Amino acid sequence: MTESIKLKGLDLLLTYECTSRCIHCCYRAGPGGGETMSVSEVEGYLTAVAGQPLEWILLFGGEPFTCYDLLRECVALAAPLAPVLVFTNGYWATDPDTARHRLAGLQAAGLDYILFSVDAFHQAHVPLERIAVGIEAARQLGYRTIAVDNRCLSTPEADNPFNRRTRELMARLAELCDLSDVDVGRGPARPVGRAADELPFRDFYASASPRSTECPLPDYLGGDLRAPTGVEIHPGGWVNLCAGLALGNARQRPLSEILAEYDPDAHPIIRLLAQEGPPGLLRLAQRHGYASDEGYMDGCHLCYQARRFLYPHYPDHLAPLRPYHERL
Ligand code: SF4
Question: CATH no. for residue 176?
C-alpha cells in the first residue's frame, strides 16, 4: 500500500569527494572521489520537500568543505526550510583565521550548527589540533550548536584498539579546547560499504547468527522501513534509506513523487527486509546463486553482503553502485 513519506530529516550527500579515505566509510568517499551535486539539483530537491514537516536538513559528504561555494549556497537555500547541520572532518581548520573565515561565511548564509567527526578512523587523516581550532572558531562566532561525533567499533563501551584510540583522542581534545558546551554523540560504524571490506569486525565481534534479526534502520531515518521519516540523496540523484537501498532516482522521477508514492510492499528488497529481516535477503541471494558461507557479524553485515551480491539483479532498487564498489 502506498505510504506517503513524511520527512522529518533530509540528508544531502553533496559530494563523494573527501580529503580522507576512512576505512569505515559506508559511501566509500575519498580523494578524487568524483561526483558532486549541482546547486540547481539541490534547489530542486529543496523545492520538492518545502511542504514537508522538516526538523533538520543535513549537508554532508564525502567532505562538504571540499565544495565550499556549493556548501554555502546550499546552506542559504536550506536555511529558510529547517535548521541546517553541516557534518565535517574539520580538515580546513588549519589556523584560527582560516577557520573563522570559513565558518563565518556559512554563518552568514544561515548556519548555526556544526558537527565535527572525531575518532580513530578520521584522525588517521586529520590532525586533532584542527578540530580544536574549528571548535574554538565556531564558539567565538556564536554558533548555537557545536557537536562532535565518534564512530565506534561495536558499542562505544566495547574494548578494542579503535575505541581505546577514540577515547584517547577525546581526552586529548579536551586538553586542546573547551568541550563543556560541545555535544558529543557516539554510535557504531555499520558493516556497510568500505567498512565491510576493511574494518576488522571479525576480530572484535562475536560472530552472530543473523536468523532472528530485524532491520535496525537508524533513528535518524525513522527506525521503521515501512514508515521512514528521513532519506539520503546522493550525487547522481539516488534517493536512499540505508546506503545503497534506493527508493528511486530523482533525476528520473520527481522527488515529490518518490516520497508521495512510497510503497514498501512494491519494493522487492524493502518488502523482504520488512517481512523477514536480513535473513530473507540471504535466501533471495541464495536463490540467485549466492553460495558464500562466510559468517556475519550482525544483521546489517548480512544485509549488506546479500545486497552486494544482488545489486546487478535489482539495478533500480539497489543503487547507487558506489556503496557496493570502491570505484566504477
Ligand atoms: S544494512 Fe540492511 S538491515 Fe542494516 S539498517 Fe541498512 S537496510 Fe537495515
Answer: 3.20.20
Asked, for residue 124, whether it belongs to a domain, the answer is yes
Cα(216) to centroid(ligand 1), Å: 6
CB 299 less than 6 A from any atom of ligand 1: yes
CB crowding 203-239: b at 16 or more within 10 Å, else e: ebbeeeebeebebbbeeebbeebbebbbbbbbbbbbb
Helix (H) / strand (E) element for 171: namely helix 161-176
Does ligand 1 have an atom closer than 6 angstroms to the CB of 242? yes
Cell numbers for 271: 518488502
Residue whose CA is at the smallest distance from ligand 1 atom 3 = 215
pLDDT digits (tens, 9 = 90+) for 71-103: 999 999 999 999 999 999 999 999 999 999 999
Closest ligand 1 atom to Cα of 277: 3
Tell me the CB-side half-sphere exposure of residue 123, using CA atoms within 13 A.
26
Q: Decide: 46 in ligand 1 pocket, CB within 6 A.
A: no
Amino acid identity of 273?
Answer: L
Q: Is the residue at 221 inside a domain?
A: no
Which position has the higher pLDDT, 81 or 296? 81
Q: How many domains does the chain have?
A: 1
Q: pLDDT at residue 212 above 60?
A: no
Check pocket membership of 302 for ligand 1, CB cut-off 6 A.
no
Q: Which domain holds residue 243?
A: 9-206+233-260
